[in-house]
Amino acid sequence: VNTSPSKIRINLEDNVQYVSMRKALKVKRPRFDVSLVYLTRKFMDLVRSAPGGILDLNKVATKLGVRKRRVYDITNVLDGIDLVEKKSKNHIRWIGSDLSNFGAVPQQKKLQEELSDLSAMEDALDELIKDCAQQLFELTDDKENERLAYVTYQDIHSIQAFHEQIVIAVKAPEETRLDVPAPREDSITVHIRSTKGPIDVYLCEVEQGHTGHKRSEGITSSSESRHPERPEEEENPQQSEELLEVSN
């Protein structure tokens, strides 16, 4: 039989297309309801509701409506990554993390709301700190407020917590250092040092019912203020030191 090459080629191409179409028609996509992903999700639902995380694989296969071999496909994978352990031939136990709150949307929403509230509170605190810093700056550095930076004896006496207490007011320049060593049984010592200028110390013992009266019993003060007229201390005439000792 004589057949031209072009005709043979056309017949071969037709046969290939025919076979490909037949194969395409025979191949069916696996139904989602019997896929391994779907079965695994259903299996995990059973794990969450199982007491102690223990499952009977025979009952699992019945509930899922599949052969036990399909259930073994799931348990073998979970066993390989240490999420389940075999209790017996037909029983497994979940040993992974707690699944009670897994995927709990309400809990996640609650946490997001708490984070939002905390973020708003943080912003409010930042604004408050900024406002306090501005007020402190105006109080300490504003020249117009500087003339009002003082406190009177009556102001101190009006504070209830200071009644029957010995109050020592100290007026000192910037960078003044105050040290309070460990108190002794009969007295408390306070060291105040400054290299920027003199230190003024005022005793104001507030006695309830005795407004305007001050006592200095039991308090000793030694001042070592250095002045220009002292030759041996001309190197730093602004240095000043106060030693206060309060006896019980």
UniProtKB/TrEMBL annotation:
SUPFAM superfamilies, from UniProt? E2F-DP heterodimerization region (SSF144074), Winged helix' DNA-binding domain (SSF46785)
| Swiss-Prot/TrEMBL keywords | DNA-binding, Nucleus, Transcription, Transcription regulation
Its cellular-component GO annotations read: nucleus
Pfam families noted in UniProt:
E2F_CC-MB (PF16421), WHD_E2F_TDP (PF02319)
What residue range is the signal peptide? Answer: none
* UniProt subcellular location: Nucleus
Does the keyword Nucleus feature in the UniProt annotation? yes
For this chain, one GO molecular function annotation is: DNA binding
Which residues, by range, are in coiled-coil regions? Answer: none
- Record-annotated E2F/DP family winged-helix DNA-binding domain positions: 31-96
Location of region: Disordered: 209-248
The record's section on InterPro entries has:
E2F, E2F-DP_heterodim, E2F_CC-MB, E2F_WHTH_DNA-bd_dom, WH-like_DNA-bd_sf, WH_DNA-bd_sf
The keyword Transcription regulation is assigned to this record: yes
Which coarse location class applies to the principal site listed for this UniProt protein? nucleus
The record's similarity note reads:
Belongs to the E2F/DP family.
Task: Name the PANTHER family on file.
Answer: TRANSCRIPTION FACTOR E2F, TRANSCRIPTION FACTOR E2F6
**What is the name listed in the Swiss-Prot or TrEMBL entry for this protein?**
Transcription factor E2F6 isoform 2
Look up and give the organism this protein is from: Daubentonia madagascariensis (Aye-aye)
